C-alpha cells in the first residue's frame, strides 16, 4: 500500500497510510479512544512522541487512517511482534478506533481486513490485539470475523515506579 488513498468496497470509505502531517490527528484519535475506554488519565503521549514513534529515524509503529467522504473518521495503529511458537512475525494492533458517527458502516472491519492483508502479504503468522471485556460492540465485531478470544492469557504490564524499581535491580549498562 502506498501513501495514496486506497478505495474500499464500502461506499465513500477509503484508507490511507498516515504521514507526518497526520501526527496531530493520530494523537487526537488516541485521546478520543482513551476517553471512550475511560482511560484518559493514562494518556501521556505528546505530539513529539507520536511524530518520533511513527515518522522518526526508527519508526516503531504504522498507522492507517480511515476516511469517510475524504474526512478522517478512524485509525488503526499497529507494530510487529514475533511468535516463537509460529516462528514468524505478526501484527499487534495497539489501537483501533472509529468516531461514533461513523460506526456501524464496516470501517472497523475494513481496518482489520487491511491489517490481515498486510500480515498475509509479508508472510507473517497472525494478527493480535486486546479488547476491554465490557466493549460489547467490539467483541461482537471480532467474533463476527472469526477472531478467537484467548481468555487463558492474562495481560501483564510493568510501568512507572514498578518498572524503575525492577530496572534498578540490574547493574547499569556501559
What would a concise description of this structure say?
The chain is α+β, with helices and mostly antiparallel strands and 174 residues long. The protein is built from five helices and six strands; from the N terminus they run ββααβββαβαα. It has a single domain (6-149), classed as 3-Layer(aba) Sandwich (Aminopeptidase), CATH 3.40.630.30.
Polypeptide structure, described:
It is a single chain. With 174 residues, the chain is of the alpha+beta class. It has a single domain, classed as Aminopeptidase (3-Layer(aba) Sandwich), CATH 3.40.630. The protein is built from five helices and six strands. The chain has helices at 23-36, 47-55, 107-121, 136-144, 160-168; strands spanning 6-7, 13-17, 62-68, 71-83, 88-98, 127-129. Strands 1-2-3-4-5-6 form a six-stranded mixed β-sheet, sandwiched between helices. The model has no long low-confidence stretch (mean pLDDT 94).
In terms of topology, how is this protein built?
Elements: E1 6-7, E2 13-17, H1 23-36, H2 47-55, E3 62-68, E4 71-83, E5 88-98, H3 107-121, E6 127-129, H4 136-144, H5 160-168
Parallel strand pairs: 5-6
Antiparallel strand pairs: 1-2, 2-3, 3-4, 4-5
Helix pairs in contact: 1-2
Amino acid at each position: 500500500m502506498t501513501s495514496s488513498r486506497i478505495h474500499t468496497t464500502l461506499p465513500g470509505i477509503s484508507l490511507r497510510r498516515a504521514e507526518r502531517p497526520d501526527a496531530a490527528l493520530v494523537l487526537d484519535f488516541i485521546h478520543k479512544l482513551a476517553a471512550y475506554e475511560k482511560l484518559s488519565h493514562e494518556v501521556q503521549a505528546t505530539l513529539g512522541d507520536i511524530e518520533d514513534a511513527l515518522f522518526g529515524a526508527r519508526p516503531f509503529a504504522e498507522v492507517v487512517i480511515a476516511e469517510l467522504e475524504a474526512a478522517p473518521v478512524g485509525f488503526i495503529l499497529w507494530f510487529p511482534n514475533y511468535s516463537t511458537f509460529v516462528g514468524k512475525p505478526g501484527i499487534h494492533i495497539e489501537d483501533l478506533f472509529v468516531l461514533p458517527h461513523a460506526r456501524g458502516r464496516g470501517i472497523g472491519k475494513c481496518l482489520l481486513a487491511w491489517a490481515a492483508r498486510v500480515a498475509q502479504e509479508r508472510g507473517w503468522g497472525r494478527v493480535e490485539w486486546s479488547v476491554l471485556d465490557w466493549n460489547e460492540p467490539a467483541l461482537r465485531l471480532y467474533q463476527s470475523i472469526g477472531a478467537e478470544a484467548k481468555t487463558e492469557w492474562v495481560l501483564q504490564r510493568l510501568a512507572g515506579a514498578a518498572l524503575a524499581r525492577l530496572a534498578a535491580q540490574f547493574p547499569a549498562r556501559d
